[in-house]
Design a protein that fits this description.
The complex is a heterodimer of chains A (about 325) and B (about 500).
Chain A lengths: L2 H18 L12 E5 L6 H15 L7 E5 L6 H8 L7 E5 L1 H9 L10 E9 L1 E6 L7 H6 L4 E6 L4 H13 L3 E6 L1 H10 L5 E5 H9 L3 E6 L25 E7 L5 H15 L2 H8 L5 E5 L1 H21 L5
Parallel strand pairs in A: 1-2, 1-3, 6-7, 6-8
Antiparallel strand pairs in A: 3-10, 4-10, 4-11, 5-8, 5-9
Helix pairs in contact in A: 2-10, 4-11
Chain B lengths: L1 H14 L2 H19 L5 H8 L8 H26 L8 H49 L4 H13 L1 H4 L4 H15 L2 E2 L6 E2 L12 H19 L20 H23 L5 H15 L11 H25 L5 H12 L8 H4 L1 H36 L3 H17 L3 H18 L5 H23 L6 H4 L1 H31 L1
Antiparallel strand pairs in B: 1-2
The chains are: A alpha/beta (about 325), B mainly alpha (about 500).
């Protein structure tokens, strides 16, 4: 060790010592960071967090280990409760999708999105309007002109698919008969066998069917066309004001310090910019990368909360 | 057909390496143990193995997952038969006939017969998977909510068969089952029902119910009276558990029927292995010349459901690999695994990654042979292990049940659920209320409810949808005929009895 290095080291040590008593947050992270999945292993939340943890560790984006922990139960309610019990502690990060908004709205867990600290939105899952290629509807216009009430397939009630259908019905000025199915698989079967006239569904389960020409996508719910489906026009292009997608992001516990927040943001942002993230997560899961930092994400969550609250109230699910 | 065989032999070439053979063998054993543990079933087994597959070549990883999946179907029956605690949902029916056989000192034989029928079921399902996968998947998707609703009705009608002596008591527990199944969020209306605590938003975990009802309930009941299991003399001879000619003859036709039924129920995206076992059991009881032996250790009632739950495994892989549609909890997790491996499940999977898929199928065929061998050879071990721990069996069962309930969600909530249903199970047994109709209602009622509502919604309010569709109409006619036939035959019998008197 040279003399200058020794001096530098001693100085750094002295500085660190002198600050130690002032702000404990400078020690952050003082132990491993926990990534909390609100659903069991193999589910969407778990898959995303495990992919993130692996990339963060492979690229040394954090000096402490990352542990993925599953807290399944209650459509994320258990995980939200767990995160809330660690208020002010930045060592926890939870995956947030629609259930982050809808579970607090439809149940009485006494928490909502404002009890947590948004860190980043990583991307969105756009919704596609998909028809069976053998059916009579070739464009959104054909659907608008159909002279009967059309059956629309989607997953569950009060979901983003349901809300897009409601907005579409308003925009078209005609009645649509929405039928909730359990899971994407049942929606795809229903369209394959022509039990429904079209479906509103996220891109993953229908991508291959569109490539092979069995399904046609007539519209996408993003603001602009996406790279994955360059030929699919947006609803907005076709004159229907629908810009609603499922979001995928990460959220920390409430009341955490600025240092913690900045550290988590830096780590997640660096992770989202790696090639591995594009290749191992974004592409295979057909996610459209669309990064938002803490403030924009908080703003976005507020907007989503309003959309869901209004729609769920209209559907009579919440009072 | 030749193309298929060529692809399959290509698959075997990939699989027949030392590393892969050892892996598939271990996968089968791990699956058997996971299946045998109460609470851990196919979904949990596949999920637990998932992280191990990340560093592996894709074919090996998929072989590990499918091997574990098939292994759980073999494993579930072991605890069902030996200690009346179904290891997982598809093994519930196995306990109905297997445990009475065990108490008669024929536990080894029950394990032997069920291992063989499991093998035959798995083999039949695999044959259909290999030769007809794309064709049957295209037809299976044409069954929609109306057909599934009719299928669930057929399933629910078997409550009469499971009722035992007192039909009124059976109806009471059925209603109770309906009530229990309504807890949690309802995806059709979006409403959350009876969620007094957040854990109930997703409903009461069905596996926690069976752990309590059968495992803990049995222990509580036995505390009142000293029951000594009839385990036979300590004996390691094969003759005890290798079924004789007469037993095999009795089991053969039910095994074949169970295999066919299991495969096709497995293919349907809206049904699964558990429902296949219920229907297989009901079918056997209806066809049996000695229906009075059911519930007391009937070989037919053991063999057919065991064949059907194994046949459902390859069955449920068919829509997964040909269309990317998962037909069961286990295949839903495999769908996630395929995506993680970078293989896109869907209609292009067989074209783009055919080699990996065929290697997986070849691995599954190999796993089925390994599982038969290991399960038959391990029977003396299981039976003698039970003999060793017999004095402490209640504490061991309670321990397994609590660990199993905990492992469902890694929390204490499901332990409470299991305890509550343990007490309910005890009260039901003590007062002679049958548990079969209750479980059937818990499983089938929410499915029947949702399929009914979807059907009516699809028809935009009209009931005609149930008779306008050929398959649905066939099922309606079939049910009407069965009901008429049983009424007429009862009348006929009564008249004849009056005549002879």
């Amino acid at each position: 060790m040279t003399f200058t290095k020794l001096i530098k080291g001693a100085l750094a040590g002295a500085v660190a010592l002198s600050f130690a008593g002032v702000a404990q947050a400078d020690d952050f992270p003082s132990r491993g960071i926990e990534f909390v999945a609100g659903y069991g292993p193999g589910g969407g939340h778990d898959t995303m967090l495990r992919a993130m943890a692996k990339i963060i560790q492979n690229n040394d984006l954090s000096e402490v280990p990352i542990n993925v922990v599953n807290k399944p139960g209650g459509s994320s309610a258990v995980a939200l409760g767990y995160l809330n019990s660690h208020k002010g502690d930045g060592h926890f990060l939870i995956s947030a999708t629609s259930s982050f908004i809808t579970t607090p709205l439809t149940s009485n867990i006494g928490l909502d999105y404002t009890n947590f600290t948004p860190i980043a939105r990583l991307g969105v899952d756009p919704e596609l309007l998909v028809v069976n290629a053998s059916g009579p509807y070739k464009t959104l216009d054909d659907i608008a002109k159909a002279d009967k009430v059309l059956n629309v397939g989607g997953t569950g009630t009060g979901t983003i698919e349901n809300i897009v259908t409601i907005k579409l019905a308003e925009a078209l000025g005609k009645k649509l008969n929405y039928i909730p199915f359990q899971g994407d698989g049942e929606v795809v079967s229903a369209l394959l066998s022509n039990q429904v006239d079209f479906t509103i569904t996220n891109t993953g389960p229908v991508g291959d069917f569109i490539k092979t020409g069995r399904f046609n996508a007539l519209a996408i719910s993003t603001e602009k066309r996406v790279e994955l489906f360059p030929d699919v026009p947006t609803f907005i292009e076709q004159g229907y004001d629908i810009n609603l997608s499922l979001f995928r992001g990460v959220v920390a516990a409430g009341d955490i310090g600025d240092t913690e927040k900045a550290y988590l943001l830096k780590m997640v942002k660096a992770m989202s910019e790696t090639k591995e993230w594009q290749e191992n997560y974004i592409q295979p899961n057909s996610v459209v990368p669309d990064f938002l930092g803490p403030d924009e994400f908080a703003e976005y969550l507020k907007g989503m909360n309003d959309v869901y609250k209004a729609s769920l109230t209209n559907l009579g699910i919440i009072k | 057909m030749l193309d298929t065989l060529a692809s399959l032999s290509g698959g075997f070439e990939t699989v027949l390496t030392f590393h892969n053979i050892v892996l598939i063998f271990l996968a089968g054993i791990i699956g058997t143990v996971i299946g045998a543990l109460p609470g851990l079933g196919p979904s949990a087994g596949i999920a637990l193995m998932l992280p191990l597959t990340f560093g592996m070549p894709h074919a090996s990883g998929l072989c590990l997952l499918t091997g574990v999946y098939m292994g759980t179907m073999y494993g579930g029956r072991i605890t069902s038969i030996l200690i009346n605690t179904p290891g997982d949902a598809p093994a519930i029916i196995t306990a109905l006939e297997g445990y009475p056989m065990m108490r008669k000192g024929k536990g080894g034989l029950a394990l032997g017969i069920s291992a063989i029928s499991s093998f035959v079921g798995g083999f039949f399902g695999l044959a259909v998977l290999v030769f007809f996968a794309p064709v049957v998947a295209e037809y299976a998707i044409f069954l929609g909510p109306p057909e599934y609703f009719m299928l669930m009705l057929v399933g629910l009608s078997t409550i009469v068969l499971l009722a035992g002596a007192d039909v009124f008591k059976a109806l009471i527990v059925t209603c109770f089952g309906f009530l229990v199944s309504t807890f949690g969020s309802d995806y059709i209306s979006g409403h959350v029902r009876f969620a007094f605590v957040p854990e109930l938003i997703e409903g009461i975990d069905f596996v926690a119910i069976i752990i309590g009802l059968y495992g803990l309930g049995e222990v509580f009941y036995n505390l009142e009276r000293k029951i000594v299991l009839n385990l036979g003399k300590p004996n390691f001879s094969f003759s005890d558990y290798i079924p004789g000619k007469a037993d095999l003859k009795e089991a053969s036709a039910p095994t074949v029927r169970g295999s066919i039924l299991g495969t096709f129920i497995g293919i349907l995206p809206g049904a699964g292995a558990t429902i296949a076992t219920f229907l297989a059991y009901a079918l056997e009881r209806k066809l049996s010349k000695k229906p009075e032996t059911f519930g007391k250790g009937a070989i037919a009632g053991l063999a057919s459901p065991e064949a059907s739950n194994n046949a459902a495994v390859p069955g449920s892989l068919i829509p997964l690999i040909t269309l990317g549609i998962p037909g069961s909890g286990g295949t839903a997790i495999m769908l996630g695994a395929l995506i993680m491996f970078g293989l896109q499940p869907g209609p292009l999977l067989m074209i783009q990654s055919g080699d990996v898929v065929w290697a997986m199928i070849a691995g599954l065929i190999l796993a089925n042979f390994f599982l038969l061998a290991s399960n038959v050879l391990l029977i003396p071990l299981f039976v003698n292990l039970l003999r060793l721990v017999q004095k402490h069996l209640p504490s061991i069962v309670v321990g397994l049940c609590i660990v199993g309930a905990f492992s469902l969600n890694y929390g204490t909530f499901n332990i409470w659920i299991a305890l509550i249903f343990g007490v309910i199970g005890y009260l039901m047994r003590k007062n002679d209320y049958p548990t079969g109709p209750f479980i059937l209602a818990v499983v089938l009622a929410p499915l029947a409810e949702n399929y009914f509502r979807q059907s009516i919604m699809l028809a935009q309010g009209s009931w005609s949808i149930f008779v306008n569709r050929p398959v649905s109409l066939t099922l309606v006619v079939f049910m009407v005929l069965v009901v008429c036939a049983s009424i007429i035959s009862k009348q006929f019998l009564r008249r004849r009895r009056v005549g002879t008197e």
